[in-house]
Protein: Helix-turn-helix domain-containing protein
Amino acid sequence: MLLAHLYRWPDKMQPQEYHKAAPALRPGTSFRNQSSGDFEQQASLLSGWNQDYVQLSSGAFKGYVTELHVQGMHLFHEFTSQSLFQHGQLPESVIAIGVPLALQNAGIFCGAPSSTQSLHVFSGRNGFEFYSPTGLLMAGIALERQELLAYMGEAGEQQLSRVCRDSHLLRMPESQLTPLRELMTGAFDMLRSNPALIHQPVAMQSLKHHVLQQVAAVLAGETSDAHATSAASKCWNMLGESRQFVQQHYDSPISVADLCQHLDISRRSLQYSFQHYLHTNPVAYLRAERLNGVRRMLKTANSVTEAAAHWGFWHFGHFSQEYKKMFGELPSTTFKRLRSLN
Structure:
């Protein structure tokens, strides 16, 4: 796993400590929808997932999370308009999976190409890493491990430990994914049209029972395709090294030539990998990384100028235009908004 390459963890919380800080699944029942115009705020909407987002595509961010908590089970739909690097980790006692309902391009999940035909296993000892594409609508399910085991038969413990040891992607036949996808879309459609259902214990218990059955069936019949993921895994390694290199040299702008030399690959190979897997080019990627660095620093910097200079932007007019194109607002607006929250 490349979590350490893709994100520098806060000094006070290392990856292995996440399960200590993460709250358990909620015991009660609730149904709510939360929208967001900020990708960092979006990352915090799913409680207990310990997520961090970095925006890579340009434009104002729009997102929402519609979620249902039922007696220790968490179902949700999450929409994100821009492409992101997502990082997170769940408690060891929670099994979480997801399936894309809609997306504009393929993504990369833990080194494997992601599509609507993929089952995402978010659980795992080292956390998950996800390059999520633009216009992604993800359906997710988080369950208590012990409850799921009751639905998996005698070999359940061994199977669940194997499948959910590390976060990864599973190739699934359409016949296996369709029932799960239909359950996740149908249940939310019914709850939107008839919210009173959440106050009916029999209905909620029935829904929980069906979800547990579907998840158990899917994980019991899991398959994988190592050949299909090998090329994407190599690209994912390269991206991790690229991010680490950029973050270590924030005081001196990194060029495409610098990146090629560091990775020991040709410019053509670098261009192909970024275009094929991230749907962008290396120049735009490097600029996005530096702009995200500025945005993070605006939380603690004394001024916008200080943050811009720290990340190598020395033409303030050009920087402001690039920042607004990337995030949909001027850096001064972000700075004032973040200050007002402190």
Notes: The chain has 14 helices and twelve strands. The first helix runs from residue 3 to 6. The CA atoms of residues 189 and 195 lie 10 Å apart.
